[in-house]
Fold each of these.
Amino acid sequence: MALRLGNQYSISRIVESLNRSSGSRLEENWYVFDHADEITRAIAESLGVDLSRKYLGPGDIKKMLGAAKKP
């Protein structure tokens, strides 16, 4: 991931940012994502994934994971 981001961020900073990123379950089929920083935005941009939405359902999460896995 560091290479994909052009070595702009250290591996430890990337790991720390990703560790803070998590989805908390609100209700049945709704999750809230409450951490975003410059690193998570850069990762989302490099993977072509839209992480601007705060509330997501399971289908939305699966679509994002599928899009991120494509080369």
Amino acid sequence: MLIIPVERQIDWRKPPLMTLAIILINLLVFFLYQSQDSELLENAVDQYLGADLAQLEAPVYLDYLERRIRLQQDDRTELAIAVANAIDDKDAEWLAYVILLDPGFYAMLVDEGMLFWQNDTYFKWKEVRSSIVENYIDQISARRLGLIPADIQLSDLVGYQFLHGGIGHLLGNMVFLFLLGFTVERALGKSKFLIAYLLCGVLSGLFFAAFDSQSLVPLVGASGSISGLMGMYVAIFGLQKIRFFYFLGVYFNYFSAPALAILPIWIGKEVYDYWLGEASRVAYMAHAGGLIAGAGMVWILGKSWLHIKEEFYEPDETEQDDEFRKSYSKALSLISQMEFTQAKSRFTALYKQYPDNLGMLEHLYHLEKLDHNDDSYHQHAQKLIEASLKKNVFSLMLDTYKDYLKRVESDSRLDVVYHNKVLYACLRHDSVKEAERAFENLRKHPDISSELLKEACQILIQEFRKRQQTMKINQYQRVMSQL
């Protein structure tokens, strides 16, 4: 059963750069650094078979497995059966791959080999076998940087998080890393996200090693770190209801539940699979350890070093867009129902929430002009002209200006500065006739100063000189002489 939280949508205008960087590093490590592993293993198998070691070791390996199974130190019953069949079938190559990749068996032979073979046979075996291990097996990436519980190195606690056992293992982990990482990175910020991610991997590896401290089998993969992201995700959302995607066999669906509810379910599943599941060789305890580490870090350090960024709790733009569309649709429906007072109230609220949206202000202007004697109509006309000028939406500015003056006629309350701004805007957009009309409105304004009017007149004269329109030049020169 697979359960994934899918509450947040990705905003590609603010991509999760650190998550993408970690994914890229994992891919490069696998396809570049780990690409040599298959060649190293093939060379090791060739030398192993060339020295006829399979015939010597295979019976001892079968006895080793059966003895550990009887003592309940191992659960690889199916492997023991497969080894017995391979011995009967004389499948030396398959036996070579299996035996070479079992470091516990090799360590046992080094210590106890003389109990199975005579001294001269043992020393010849040791010389050849140690050469294969040192030159090939120990050079495989999992042996160099994997986390070996019986021999934990500080570098391995970080290195193992970027190694994977195969393409399926890699791709599965990268999908989970992406799904969880972009949300947690948004909550913590890039640098803290990276530190928390690596620390979850470290604690996950130590937790795993504590349950199998004598194991020589290396642990590899980002699963522990990703489980840590799951823990952080759950701790961030807490009791808030979020959506989860689940996959069971061939069936999948979504369900909503408090984020915190998934924590005991996930831990219980991992512990159950470890103790009772058939695939107990998978590092379930590393997963559980990462989950506990991630959740614990947020709960313990969430109010200090690992505090959640305030903007994370703000609805993302997609959510805002959905909310806006619903409110806008409702406001328009009120207009269609001729519920103008309610529509005005709705658009006023929308304009307060989205002050940069010219459309909301334009709707308010048209609603206000139903009663153009009201002060609010004059105020909204001025606001719309001013906002249109700031955003350089010339057509809306000019249409509003003309419509307003037509409706109010002699009762215009537009400040003198706006007539002047309209004049300049018209000249910038090559609308000379409209600029002249704005000049006439400027001349009629009761608060106009002679200096401002002279300046506007001079601008028109300069414009007509560019156009070589002599009559217009003379006309405005006469106006200048009368000021």
